[in-house]
Structure formats: structure tokens, C-alpha cells
């Protein structure tokens, strides 16, 4: 009877927006007691808009944006899209750029007119002893805004705050996970204050912030060592090792191909709520087999 049950469950899964890539992990899904979520693009829409700016040195807002957008134009990160869209809404011209380099989980850099131009995370700026106005930064972060900095020849030139939208479906998913006694954990490369702000609105139980891409898989392992059976949900290149490491790796369909290739299950409609169907269908399918 097993093959029949499985083919029925494949059809049911598809109806619930799920693509099952690995059967043994799908079977394991009925034992999950913690779900780890990447923030950007998974719990949030991953569509950033520029909300606030501050400029330093001699650059004005447009100069900061055109420099930042020039280097971000070669990046696929949602932050990059937000900055490039703002520059194009202001009809700004981009510069010539060379030596583009992406530093995963930190930012990007390139050369414009012989100057070294970076758009980087607050963590990078703090580590390199570049001073900025903590009050403004803290206020933006508390509002849940992601802040990146334009650094030209090691000098701070601008701060750009961007806001993303929380998925309503993320809140509903977490509430339902709690009803089923499943823990909801956030794992993000973004700043701690932003992460806490988003987590609080969604009802997340635990937050790991400012986690570099190569540390995400280790964090998953740490959580497993507590005796939890863990599903990891993510969309980015930086989530791929963590998806592989988790007992069940779940990729968001709208995310990168690398994330999908590393996942056991794909959320075809990019709706976090479909995670709930994974648990129920796994139970229904495999409890029938034993
Ligand atoms: P997440 O876990 O939320 O998907 P990432 O690991 O992709 O986050 O990025 C972590 C942080 O690194 C971002 O919040 C940002 O500060 C910085 N960053 C990453 N990519 C870029 C980029 N293209 N431009 C500017 N900053 C970036
Ligand atoms: Mg992400």
C-alpha cells in the first residue's frame, strides 16, 4: 500500500504549495519541534524601500545614492534592489565601476573614479572603527529598519535606512506553530535591534542575529544539540549550508536556485503558512504506513 499512499501524498502536497524533493526528510517532518526561519525574504517580503538617509563628508543625498547604486547594481541582494530602485526613482545617473566584489553577509565593494567604494553592514563599520551617529542609527534600528553605510576610501560618506514588510502569513504561521508546541526561531545576518523588532511583531521565541553566512549551519547544529528536531527555512545562497544541516531543509520558492537545490522541500508559493501543511501531511502519510 505504501506507493499508493505516497503518490496520493504527492498530489496533496502539490495542492498545498509544496514540492517534496527528498522523501526521508519529508517523513522526518512529523517529528519536528523547532522551526528556524531566515528573516529577509522568508518572514519579510524581502522588498526593501529606502526610508531615511544621512550624509557625511562632502556628499549630498543624491551623490551618496548614485555611488551606492552603482556598486549595488551588480548585487542581487534585496538591499541592493532597494537602493538601485531609489536611485532610479530620483533619475540619478550611475558611474563607471570596476573591481566589483561581494562580501557575503557584509556587503559589496567596487572602484569608482579611482576611489574604493563600499556599501556595508553596521558590523563592518563598527569593526573598522569608523564612527557614526549612534543615536540616529539606534532609532532607525528600533523601528525595524535595516541600515547600511557608504564608505569611500575608508571614510564614512552616508547612511541609508531601508524598510521591509513583515509577511502577515508569518505571524499566522508562528501562532499556529505554538498551538502545535513547535518553537519558532529566527536566524539572520541583519542587526540585532532590527531582528528583535521583527521577531517581536511575529511572536518568534528566540533570535540569533548578526550571524555570518558561514556560521548559520553551526547555529543550526547548536540548536539540534539541545535535542530539538529542526526544520530550517530560508531563501538565500547564505542559507544553503544551514538548509542542508537541518533535519528538514525548506526553501522559499521565490529565493535563489542554490537554496532550492539544498532543500528537501520547496515552498512553491513562497508562503510560510504552507510549512504547516508539511507537518500535517507528513503525519497523515507516514502514520498510515506504520
Ligand atoms: P539575512 O540573513 O537577513 O538574509 P544577509 O546575511 O544576506 O542577511 O546580510 C546580512 C547583512 O549584510 C545585511 O543586513 C547588510 O547589512 C549586509 N549586506 C549583505 N549584502 C549586502 C549588499 N549587497 N549591500 C549592502 N549590505 C549588504
Ligand atoms: Mg535571506
Walk me through what this model shows:
- By secondary structure, the chain is an alpha/beta fold.
- The protein folds into two domains: 2-45 and 166-289, Rossmann fold (3-Layer(aba) Sandwich); 49-163, 3-Layer(aba) Sandwich (Calcium-transporting ATPase, cytoplasmic domain N), CATH 3.40.1110.
- The chain contains 13 helices and 13 strands.
- The strands form two sheets. The chain has a seven-stranded mixed sheet with strand order 1-13-12-11-2-9-10, sandwiched between helices. Strands 3-8-7-6-5-4 form a six-stranded antiparallel sheet.
- Strand 4 (98-103) and strand 5 (107-112) form a beta hairpin.
- Helix 1 (2-15) packs antiparallel against helix 13.
- The radius of gyration is 21 Å and the shape is elongated.
- The model has no long low-confidence stretch (mean pLDDT 92).
The sequence of SSEs as H and E is HEHEHEHHEEEHHEEHEHEHEHEHEH
The CATH superfamily of the largest domain is HAD superfamily/HAD-like
Would you tell me which CATH topology of the largest domain applies? Rossmann fold
Ligands in the model, by name, code or SMILES, are: adenosine-5'-diphosphate, magnesium ion
Strand content: 15-25%
User: How many distinct helices?
Assistant: 13
- In the CATH classification, which architecture of the largest domain applies? 3-Layer(aba) Sandwich
User: What is the SS-derived class?
Assistant: alpha/beta
Number of domains: 2
Largest sheet: 7 strands, mixed
Number of strands: 13
The overall average pLDDT, rounded, is 92
Ends distance: 11 Å
Helical percentage: 40-55%
How many whole angstroms does the radius of gyration measure?
21 Å
Outline the low-pLDDT stretches.
none
From the spread of the alpha carbons, the general shape counts as elongated
Which strand order does the major sheet show?
A: 1-13-12-11-2-9-10
What is the name of the CATH class of the largest domain? Alpha Beta
Amino acid at each position: 500500500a505504501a506507493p499508493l499512499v505516497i503518490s496520493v501524498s504527492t498530489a496533496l502536497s502539490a495542492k498545498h504549495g509544496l514540492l517534496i524533493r527528498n522523501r526521508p526528510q519529508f517523513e522526518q517532518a512529523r517529528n519536528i519541534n523547532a522551526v528556524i526561519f531566515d528573516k529577509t525574504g522568508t518572514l519579510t517580503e524581502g522588498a526593501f524601500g529606502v526610508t531615511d538617509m544621512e550624509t557625511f563628508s562632502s556628499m549630498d543625498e543624491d551623490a551618496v545614492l548614485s555611488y551606492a547604486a552603482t556598486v549595488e547594481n551588480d548585487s542581487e541582494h534585496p538591499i541592493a534592489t532597494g537602493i538601485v530602485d531609489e536611485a532610479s526613482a530620483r533619475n540619478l545617473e550611475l558611474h563607471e565601476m570596476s573591481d566589483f566584489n561581494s562580501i557575503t553577509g557584509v556587503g559589496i565593494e567596487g572602484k569608482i573614479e579611482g576611489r574604493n567604494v563600499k556599501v556595508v553592514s553596521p558590523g563592518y563599520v563598527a569593526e573598522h572603527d569608523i564612527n557614526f551617529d549612534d543615536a540616529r542609527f539606534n532609532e532607525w534600528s528600533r523601528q525595524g529598519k535595516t541600515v547600511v553605510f557608504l564608505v569611500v576610501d575608508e571614510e564614512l560618506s552616508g547612511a541609508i535606512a531601508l524598510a521591509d514588510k513583515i509577511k502577515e502569513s508569518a505571524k499566522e504561521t508562528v501562532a499556529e506553530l505554538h498551538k502545535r508546541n513547535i518553537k519558532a526561531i529566527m536566524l539572520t545576518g541583519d542587526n540585532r535591534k532590527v531582528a528583535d523588532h521583527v521577531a517581536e511583531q511575529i511572536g518568534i521565541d528566540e533570535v540569533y542575529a548578526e550571524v555570518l553566512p558561514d556560521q548559520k549551519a553551526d547555529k543550526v547544529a547548536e540548536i539540534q544539540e539541545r535535542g530539538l528536531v529542526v526544520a530550517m527555512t530560508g531563501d538565500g545562497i547564505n542559507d544553503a549550508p544551514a538548509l542542508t544541516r537541518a533535519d528538514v531543509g525548506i526553501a522559499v520558492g521565490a529565493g535563489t536556485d542554490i537554496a532550492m537545490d539544498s532543500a528537501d522541500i520547496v515552498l512553491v508559493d513562497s508562503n510560510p503558512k504552507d510549512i504547516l501543511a508539511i507537518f500535517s501531511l507528513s503525519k497523515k502519510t507516514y502514520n498510515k504506513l506504520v
